[in-house]
Design brief:
Layout (H helix, E strand, L loop, with lengths): L1 H16 L13 H23 L16 H20 L13 H4 L4 H20 L9 E3 L8 E3 H25 L15
Antiparallel strand pairs: 1-2
Helix pairs in contact: 1-2, 2-5, 2-6, 3-5, 3-6
């Protein structure tokens, strides 16, 4: 019970600390779910804009040999999105033969393939988030290897999805800056009307 309390408190605190958070409407019945959804969409949008704007010739770029390439980050995000979102959304992702290829092979796919697959994974996550409400965040769902019997609060996986996007957004934004590109979050905002 103590662990669930910590997870729920972290889930409630996250929207207050994320930058540029869009507040849920005052009359919202599901402010926590709406905050997670808004944050997920914001970072997913920035990530897609970044991957779309990075030249295909830079998809093999990494600042140091130990770091992931741009292509690795794209394929990792796709895989993580399906894993996390199918878990908390209860919607299985239909795996294909291409999904079972090694990550090192998938990371070398052409930019168009990587971005199309990543975009599809974000749409899958949007659909998974749409099935949630605040009352489901405390539900205990399977965690760990299949058959392990371990469970964790659904909020843990929703939080994991959003924080993974934030983490990789920071990574990709830095990669862009190192290549003289401006990350989408740093572009001038349209003038107010």
């Amino acid at each position: 019970m103590k662990r669930l309390t910590v997870v729920v408190l972290a889930a409630l605190a996250l929207p207050a600390v994320l930058p540029a958070q869009q507040p849920a409407p005052a009359n919202s019945a599901n402010p926590v779910t709406q905050a997670f959804t808004a944050s997920g969409r914001r970072y997913a949008g920035w990530l897609m804009a970044a991957f779309d704007s990075i030249p295909a010739s830079k998809y093999g770029y990494r600042p140091t040999p130990i770091q992931m390439t741009v292509g690795n980050v794209a394929q990792h995000l796709e895989s993580a999105n399906y894993s996390l979102c199918s878990g908390f959304g209860g919607m299985p992702h239909a795996m294909t033969a291409r999904d079972s290829l090694a990550d090192s092979i998938k990371a070398q796919w052409p930019k168009d393939t990587l971005t199309a697959r990543l975009r599809a994974s974000f749409a899958f996550c949007d659909a998974a988030l749409a099935t949630l409400d605040d009352g489901k965040m405390g539900d205990m769902i399977p965690a760990g290897p299949p058959g392990s019997g371990r469970t964790a609060a659904r909020a843990r996986f929703v939080l994991g999805y959003v924080t993974d996007l934030v983490d990789h957004w920071s990574q990709v934004a830095n990669y862009m800056r190192l290549n003289g590109l401006v990350p989408p979050s740093a572009l001038p905002r349209p003038a107010a009307r």
